[in-house]
Amino acid sequence: MTRPGDWTPGAGSEADPALDLDFDRDDGDARDVGQDRAARLKKSPSAFRTISEVADDLHIPQHVLRFWETRFPQVKPLKRGGGRRYYRPDDIGLLRRISDLLYIQGYTIKGVQRLLREGDGTLSGELPPPDVADRGDDHELTAHPHESVDLATQEDDTISDAAEPWIPLAPPLAVYAEVDALKAEIRRLQEVLDLVLGGLVDLRRSLPS
DNA sequence: GAAACCTTTCTGTAGCGTCT
DNA sequence: AGACGCTACAGAAAGGTTTC
């Protein structure tokens, strides 16, 4: 099976002259998941990717990616005829950041939406930990950034979207260190899982059909 | 006051038709 | 055939209302 490492829209193809993705899937082959993944990983960082590739790379189900698209207007993959999505590197970077905020840092979708609204829409750079209003749980956040803000003048003790623009305060460094350690651990576990997957693929290949 | 019930919101999930 | 998209639906949690 052949699959070019790179494919980008706009370069002419038999299937779709208007938007060539130069992507020979060779569906006649029994597709090898391991090789498939390896080929995908070899793709140029600037290559466009399908939803299945992005889902695989980010370890996020496809339906979740589509759901995020309905929640984050900033996520706008290119769409071909038939509505198929093709993600640019920028889209993937944004999705990766959203995933990190939602699943690692504990933001809610609303919280991430607020960050996107207040930032430049890319979520680039270091972000503070979520405050109570942006968290998906009700953990005590005795040191959350809003604590040092004088809340006496507010009508209630909630931090609503309608409140004054969020002011970044000195981050709790211990929390950042812990988050960084957890991220490193997650990366390590993902590498281990990739190795296990590769081993399983090899094992399957060695079995009689 | 608190228990029970109802409604709304959030975050996905399932099913099925379409497209490559 | 399998990847994909769309829409309706699920279920858990939070908030609100009613009843005792």
From TrEMBL:
Record InterPro entries: DNA-bd_dom_put_sf (IPR009061), MerR-type_HTH_dom (IPR000551), MerR_fam (IPR047057)
Biased composition (Basic and acidic residues): 28-39
Biased composition (Acidic residues): 17-27
Source superkingdom: Bacteria
PROSITE patterns: HTH_MERR_2
Region feature (Disordered): 1-41, 120-140
A Gene Ontology molecular function term of the record: DNA-binding transcription factor activity
Protein name listed in UniProt: MerR family transcriptional regulator
